[in-house]
Each structure stands twice: as C-alpha cells, then as structure tokens.
Write a structure and sequence with these properties.
The protein has 756 residues and is of the alpha+beta class. The protein is built from 21 helices and 27 strands. The strands form seven sheets. The protein has a seven-stranded mixed sheet with strand order 10-11-8-18-15-16-17, with helices on both faces. A five-stranded mixed sheet has the order 13-21-20-19-14, with helices on both faces. Strands 1-2-3-4 form a four-stranded mixed sheet.
Length: 756
C-alpha cells in the first residue's frame, strides 16, 4: 500500500480511535513533540519563549499562542478547540492569538472530516492547556519560595492563596521555560464546575476578518511571479489524450504555454486526473485559452456508463439475496408464515459537494521542496500525495492551510493541490490552479448512488416481527482498490449495520456495485441514503397500520438498551464501544423530546400541510427531527418550521453547535429537493448551479429550532448528524401534505402538484 493510501484509508479501515492516543502518547515524548522540527514547520507557538508542547506558547508580554491544527470551513473549529486549551490554561481569551498549523504529524491526525475534531482532541487540548498551567504555577511557587499547593491560577495570572501575591503569565514565561514538562499523572485537569469557556462557547475568532473581507481563503494566496492554470480534464474517469492541438489556445493574450498532465494510474485515490493545463498571467486568460484547446479523447471503459441504466442494475441487485452483514432470529421462517408482508424500494442518486469556493491551490517547487497554500481539510494527505507525485520526502512538502470556503468532505481529497505541485515542478515557478464551478461539479468525488430494498413481516398491530434490508452502492474504497464492489464496514455501519429497532428477526445485507466515477465522502456520507430508506420505510409502516408515526417510531426503538454487536463488524466511527455504546435510550429520549417541542399531534395544520418525523444516530450523536411542510396545488414546497433535538454528549460551543444543525437543515433541503448527478456515455451531465441547484433562501426552512440535550456523555460529532433525519422527516412530511410517498430522491423527480 502506498503512503497516500495509508493516510487516506486510515479512517475507513482503522477508524479514528487512535488519533487522540497518538498525540497523547507522543505528548510526553520529547523526541517526537519537542524534537528538532524543520524551520518551515515552526509556528508562532513554537517560537514563543515558553513552549511546553506543540499546541501552546506564551510570550513574555503575556500573549498566549494556541495552535489550531484543524481546518476552518465554517464550523468554527479553529476557535472551539483552542477554547478548550485556553480554559484549562485559565487564559484570558482577549490575550489569545491563534496560529494555524501547517501539515505536520506532530499534531496527530489533521483530517478535519468525519465529525471527530472535538471528540478526537478534547482530552488532548485539555492536557495541553493544563500542562502549561501547571508549569506556570511551579515557576511562580519557585519565585516566591512557597509550596506549589499554595498557588493557583486566576485569569491569566498565578495567585498565592495566602498572601494574595500575583504574577502574570508573561512575567513567568522565562522561568517556566526552564522547567521540565510534568508527567501526565502530575497534570490535574480542572473540574467541570471550574470551566470558564467549555460549555459556554465563544463566537468565531475570525469573525471580524470574515465580515470585513480581510479573511484569507485559498483564492487569496499569492506569490510573486506565479502563473495561473486551468486544466481540461478527461470528460470520463480514466480517459486519456489521443491528440491535442494547442495552436489557438496559445494565440490568446496572456497564455504562456500548455502542459500535458499524465493520467492517473488506477486506482485514482488522490492523484491528478490528467489532461491539459493552460498556463497564463490571469485566470481569465487561462480560462479563455482552455476553451480554444482541441483535444481528442480516448474515454476508456467507463464511456459506457449511463446513470439511468446503472440505476436499474442497482435496483435489480437490491432485489436479489446478497452478502450478510448482520442477522438475528429466523427471517426466512417469518416471511414464509401467514404474517402480512410489506416491501418497498428506495433510491438516492449521486450527489456533488458544490462548496461555495471551488478547488484552488497555489504551489511552488523550489530547491527540492514544495510549499503549497490550499483550502484543504487534510494537509497531511497533501504532503502524502505531493511527495508521491514528485518523488520527494513528505517532510519536504510544506502545506499552509488557508480558510476554506466550504468543504463538506471534498477538500480532504487533495488532487487539486497535487496538480499545482506537478505543474510548478514542470515550469519552475509558482503555479495557482483554479477550478471553475463546472470543474467542481463534473470532476467531483461523488457521494455514492444507492438502491435499498426493504421488507417486513407484520403482526396484527402492524409492528414488524421480521425485517430485511438490503443496500447496494458503489463503495468509497473503490478509489483505493479497483476490485472493491462491496461496502466497507465503516460505511455500512452508517445507519445500516446498526439499525436499532427492537425486532426479533433481522437480516441486513449488502450487494455489489462497480464504481464508474470517483466516489468520496460527503457530509453525512452513507447515512444520507441509509437513514432515508429506514426512516421512510418506518413511516410507511406506521401509516399502513393507521398508527401515529411518532408513537410508532418509539415502539420500534423499544425500551432503553445497549445494542449488542457481538460477531458483527461494527467500527462505531472509530470510537471505543465501551466509551461510546449504541444506546437506544438516548435515541428514544431525543424522539420523545422532539415530539414535545414540535407540538406533534397538537398543532392544527392547514390544507396541503404536514409534519414528518425521523430519528437517527450518526457520528455517535443522536438526533430526532420534525419537519413541517406546505405544498400548494402547483406542487411548490415551503418549509415553515423545523424542530431538531440533539444529544451530542458534552457540547463545548453550544451556539456554534446549533448553527451546525441549522445549516444541516439547509444542506438537507438541497439534497432532498434537487440533488442529483447523472451521466451519459460516462460524462457527467450537470455543470453549474443551473443544472445542479442548491436551496435558495425562499426554499430553505424559514425557522429552525435546535434543542441540545444536557449530557454527561463524552463529546460526539455535530457537523454531519443533522442531515440524515432531516431528509427523511422532510419526505415523510411531504406524504402527509400530499398523499404522495417519496421513495426516490430528489423531489424534483416527483410531481407534487394536485392531479388535474
């Protein structure tokens, strides 16, 4: 396995459980954290006089530097994790400066993906801040000649309890810098009651710059002497150039040259797609020159890919016996009994990320090293793929992380950064690669298309006594393994393997599907299609039984218990199961709360209105959502209100967390209403927001109420868990409002207007 595959597949094959352990384990190993890091890798925190670990630095003027090693794309993680450090340090937030980390293994995992930043680094950040606090206290005690036990910290100062003497952190920086770092067991963390910031939160550290246009994104990166590049990629995955005529392209003013980029060697992973790059002195010139290229393509075997035909193949496969993922009881016996049988098929198409900022990267190859500036979610993946493409060491790839204008998982795949590095290596000067919106839509790593088959045998009350579910989708692992056709355990575990209902006879299966485009993770990933199928099928069963869907859902969830996955490959999002067990009581609680908060069953709705409900656990967080819709006779949809109850364990930054779920409702609206990528002759048909629309302000929910459950459970994910139950609840509400059941997304494929 290559270096890039090692980096990229860790999440899928090993999970994230080791991320925190990596840093904590290394934290007390000076040869790892305090070794002679390259000059290129040094941060302001490293350069501070008192630098107890890689995340903290204190200057003699009292300035506290805290390193943000995660990427900022609107989640405010660049503020939230440093806030944890500042709390344990007892730092004055007004005197804190945040330093963005480059890609560097000293920080442990840097892939800002999978809704795991707080979960993976909450304890690491606490220990980092607390270690600095302990050392500052020791320095003050030595200076005063008093026992350490008589000293404590207040905001940005150490206080001698009996005399009231005080020393600021800046005054102690020199003395503290001469002390050895304490052992882990000597570092006492603050009690919950003493927290200043954790659980209370803070607005974005970057807010002023963001609202005044000073914030620097990938497109803002600049180097003297740089050229701009626009790349004509093969229209079909795996395509190659048969011939190219650049004569007219070179006639465009500002265009300096064209360069052929070699096609990738399968599997694609994060390699450049290949094609022809047009280099120029401006983006406009590069774009215009690119339009003048005359290229004849050999589109290869994927030229036969047709999404309509592929859909039929997936649905046919979903109707056939497949690979067993989890089973209990005797499903076959129950289905051959006299119990009524209900079955249904569900379908979700390919989805694109479409972040507001398309792919862009600036790279300079010089003296055997690459400096790259990029809006990336994973700078260490940048190091891995660039080093692989150019044949240099990963330590010779310095990735500077800018702010990201949206990510949703797309920018953890650094093919676009590799393109800039390859071109800079070829031309000997800095190159900024700029993708157009069309490039972004047509050459994405798409969220998998999926077909799901559901079947239930029902008792006299309409409750399932047997349940079969079968999912078929091209797996994400196909970008790392050309032979991969089955879902991998981490993605099957996203709302499929862990179906939580209390049903005696259960069978969960997965069928094969070959990928013809690059498949990648998008916000919520497989939970999107799996929750849609399970929660819509559940709602169908409730209405079929003439039962209240909320009460019926609670009955399916059953009484509080911990799911038993003995003998089942269930990675649990990389988290230890004893720390993050699957507790149906927590899912039940959020469902009960959303029924109460939304006024379920108590609100009088008008003609063409409806409420839908869904509940789902993803990324270790439990969410229940109720969506209200209005549909007029022409089929126009309005979403007056959304209610969402969230149990994400300990929440560090509550207001920011609520914003994630408000955003999830808007994101889910786009997916449900119009999200669809299709292909003919192997080429993607959509190209811009006219053919791949996202929700406009009048289409988004008008009011979204988010309720956070007070919890002593450890922190879980918040960036993604709001999307899956929203989509299902939205579609269930459409049924109530119109009588039309949604089994296929997007909604734009269904005529919701009143029949004439």
């Amino acid at each position: 396995m290559s270096a890039i595959e090692n980096v990229s597949r860790r999440w899928f094959l090993k999970g994230l459980a080791g991320a925190g352990a990596l840093v904590l384990g290394a934290y007390y190993a000076p040869e790892i954290l305090w070794g002679q890091e390259p000059a290129d890798a040094r941060t302001d925190a490293d350069n501070a006089l008192f630098h107890p670990n890689v995340f903290v630095g204190v200057e003699t003027d009292g300035t506290v530097w805290i390193v943000a090693h995660r990427s900022e794309m609107g989640t405010v993680i660049r503020t939230t994790l440093p806030l944890v450090v500042a709390d344990e340090l007892d730092a004055d937030w007004k005197r804190v400066k945040i330093d963005q980390a480059i890609g560097d293994r000293r920080y442990g995992d840097q892939n800002t993906d999978g809704s795991h930043s707080v979960r993976g680094f909450f304890d690491v950040m606490r220990v980092s801040g607390a270690t600095a606090r302990v050392m500052l206290i020791q320095a003050a005690a030595q200076q005063w000649g008093v026992p350490v036990s008589e000293c404590k910290t207040d905001v940005h100062v150490v206080v001698h309890s009996s005399s009231g003497r005080r020393l600021g952190y800046g005054e102690l920086a020199t003395a503290a810098s001469k002390l050895p770092a304490p052992k882990k067991e000597e570092v006492q963390l603050k009690s919950k009651s003493a927290w200043r910031y954790i659980g209370k939160g803070m607005t974005s550290y970057d807010l002023a710059d963001l609202v005044t246009g000073k914030a620097a994104y990938g497109m803002d990166a600049h180097l003297d002497g740089m050229v701009f590049a626009s790349i004509e990629h093969p229209p079909v995955l795996g395509g190659k150039i048969k011939s190219v005529d650049n004569t007219d392209a070179l006639k465009v003013g500002g265009v300096s040259q064209t360069i052929v980029i070699d096609p990738f060697k399968p599997p694609p992973a994060f390699q450049p797609l290949g094609g022809v790059a047009v280099l120029a002195n401006s983006t406009w010139a590069a774009f215009q020159g690119r339009k003048k290229l005359k290229i004849e393509w050999d589109n290869g075997p994927n030229a036969t890919y047709d999404s309509d035909q592929y859909k039929k193949e997936l649905q046919d496969t979903a109707r056939k016996p497949a690979k067993l993922i989890r089973g209990q009881g005797d499903v076959d016996k129950a289905f051959t009994s006299t119990a009524p049988i209900f079955e249904a098929d569900y379908y979700v198409p390919l989805l694109a990320h479409a972040p507001m900022e398309p792919m862009v990267a600036l790279a300079e190859f010089k003296d055997g090293k690459v400096h790259a500036w990029a809006p990336t979610q994973n700078p260490q993946a940048v190091q891995a793929i660039v080093s692989s493409e150019l044949g240099i060491g990963k330590e010779d790839v310095i990735c500077h992380v800018t702010l990201l204008g949206g990510g949703f998982g797309r920018k953890s795949k650094p093919d676009y950064v590799a393109e800039a590095a390859v071109l800079s290596h070829k031309v000997g000067r800095p190159v900024k690669v700029v993708w157009t919106r069309e490039d972004d839509i047509q050459f994405d790593y798409y969220n998998a298309v999926a077909a799901m088959y559901m079947k239930a045998a029902l008792d006299s009350n309409g409750k399932p006594v047997a349940w079969l579910q079968r999912s078929v989708f091209p797996p994400i692992t196909s970008i790392f393994d050309v032979n991969a056709v089955y879902g991998d355990p981490p993605h099957l575990a996203q709302g499929w393997t862990d179906m939580p209902y209390d049903i005696p006879n259960l069978r969960i299966e997965n069928g094969p599907a070959k990928a013809h485009v690059r498949i990648g993770w998008l916000r919520s990933v497989a939970n999107i299609y799996h929750a849609f199928a399970v929660q819509t099928f559940s709602d169908e069963l409730a209405h079929r039984a003439k039962r209240d869907p909320g009460e019926y859902l609670l009955e399916l969830i059953g009484q509080p218990r911990t799911l038993n996955f003995t003998g089942v490959d269930y990675p649990n999002y990389g988290a230890a199961y004893d720390i993050y067990p699957w507790e149906t009581g927590r899912l039940r609680r959020v469902t009960e709360m959303v029924i109460e908060k939304s006024g379920w069953g108590k609100r009088k709705l008008g003609k063409g209105s409806g409420l839908g409900i869904a509940a789902h656990r993803s990324f270790l967080t439990y969410v229940a959502t109720v969506v209200e819709v209005e549909v007029n006779d022409q089929g126009d949809i309005r979403i007056p209100r959304v209610d969402c109850v969230v149990d994400a364990g300990l929440v560090v930054n509550p207001e920011v967390t609520k914003a994630q779920f408000e955003g999830a409702a808007v994101f889910g609206t786009s997916v449900a209403r119009t999200g669809e990528i299709t292909a003919k002759n192997g080429a993607i048909e959509q190209s811009n927001f006219d053919s791949y629309p996202v929700a406009r302000i009048n289409e988004a929910p008008y009011q979204t109420n988010v309720y956070l459950v007070e919890s002593d459970a450890p922190p879980a994910g918040v960036g993604e868990p709001g999307v899956p139950p929203f989509i299902a609840a939205f579609c269930n509400a459409i049924y109530v409002a119109t009588g039309k059941r949604i089994r296929e997304l997007p909604l734009s494929r269904t005529n919701l207007g009143k029949e004439s």
